[in-house]
TrEMBL record:
Record-annotated membrane-spanning stretches: none
InterPro entries registered for this protein in UniProt: UPF0145_dom_sf, UPF0145_YbjQ-like
UniProt similarity note: Belongs to the UPF0145 family.
Protein known as: Heavy metal-binding domain-containing protein
Length: 274
């Protein structure tokens, strides 16, 4: 599928037509917001439209690393990044079709499918929102809906601080950690000692992932990244192969940056579940 817009299934198109943002006053909204998030998103001047979903089932190829060498497995790094980007693009397409200004609370998941060890399902999901007053200044690059993994509470707080989200930025690195030689292993028996080759490998792999995420933020014209997380996972690959995945929300000032003493204090919102 060369175009994300052609990959939205007919049932999804029909679902989007029934949402409030499709010009139907009687339409409903759907979201994965908690009650607190729903309240604070509305207090920020936005209304939820609908849940946006993008999925990509991807066959991840095979790449072998040198037994005794620390090295990035570039083909696997590219595959993991490309598959996530396809899922994200389809989620943004749904947001665009429902008329959303952006998506908040984005979650990216990776799941191995049972029928083939080399097939992974990548899913992106979040809630599309629109500015209630039609403010034109909240979309992301090239007029596309912004994406963010911030919760509803963090989204409200970010706006109160005079910043807005631009895009969910990410960086991936699949890395082969060298095996340790027999003589070196025997020399460490019974001793407290750092495994320097392993330490350096994991350090390098994390830095590569974070550098790529930082590069995405720079390309988006962001001033910084908030809510950054660094995930580690093997995805059932061969021993000594691990992925580091860095993700966060790129942000920039709405207008002029606010002085810290002028930022309103966070508000505590309580809810009771029966």
């Amino acid at each position: 599928m060369s175009d994300a817009s052609t990959s939205i299934p007919p049932h999804a198109v029909e679902r989007l037509k029934g949402l409030r943002g499709q010009g139907h006053p009687g339409g409903i909204f759907t979201s994965d917001f908690s009650v607190n998030e729903f309240l604070l998103v509305r207090k920020a001047g936005f209304e939820p439209i609908g849940l946006c979903v993008g999925t990509c089932v991807y066959h991840v190829g095979i790449q072998y690393g040198s037994w005794g060498q620390n090295q990035e497995l570039t083909k696997l790094s590219q595959a993991m990044y490309h598959a996530r980007e396809l899922a994200m693009a389809r989620m943004r397409e749904e947001a665009r079709d429902m008329g959303a200004d952006g998506i908040v609370g984005v979650r990216l998941t990776v799941k191995r499918l049972e029928w083939d060890a080399n097939i992974l399902e990548f899913m992106a999901i979040g809630t599309g929102i629109v500015h209630a007053a039609g403010h034109p200044g909240f979309k992301g690059a090239e007029g596309q809906p912004f994406t963010s993994d911030l919760s509803g509470q963090d989204f409200w707080t970010l706006l109160q601080a005079g910043y807005r989200p631009l895009a969910l930025v990410m960086g991936s690195c699949v890395y082969h950690v060298a095996h340790q030689g027999l003589l070196q292993s025997l020399g460490q028996i019974g001793r407290n000692t750092e495994m320097t080759n392993f330490s350096q490998a994991l350090y390098d792999a994390r830095e590569i992932a974070m550098e790529r995420m930082q590069h995405e933020a720079t390309e988006a014209g962001a001033e910084g990244v908030v809510g950054m997380e660094l995930h580690e996972g093997s995805h059932n690959w061969k021993p000594h192969v691990i992925e580091f995945f860095a993700v966060g929300t790129a942000v920039k000032p709405i207008a002029a940056e606010l002085a810290p003493d002028t930022i309103p204090d966070p508000q505590l919102v309580l809810s009771v579940n029966s």
